[in-house]
Design goal:
Layout lengths: L12 E3 H8 L3 H9 L14 E3 H10 L17
Antiparallel strand pairs: 1-2
Length: 79
């Protein structure tokens, strides 16, 4: 019986791996967001980095805008 099991949906603090799994992003992307300051890294002990799940949720909700155009995007050519 696993009464003490904590899932990503109920835990407030997530490890980098758990944040990646929870958000559907890669671990590399989570680390880039931390390095860029878009997510705040908390270090309760040496060698452990945790992220606030509410901050991950806010980041994901704020990035649901339309896809932007730019380099690499081809325009439809009409003749």
């Amino acid at each position: 019986m696993a009464t003490g099991t904590i899932t990503c949906e109920s835990a407030r603090w997530l490890t980098v791996d758990a944040a990646a799994s929870y958000s559907g992003l890669s671990v590399k992307t989570i680390r880039r967001l931390l390095a860029g300051g878009r997510l705040t890294a908390h270090r309760p002990v040496r060698g452990r980095v945790i992220v606030d799940r509410r901050q991950v949720d806010a980041l994901l909700e704020g990035s649901t805008g339309s896809v932007r155009g730019g380099r690499g995007m081809r325009q439809a050519v009409t003749a």
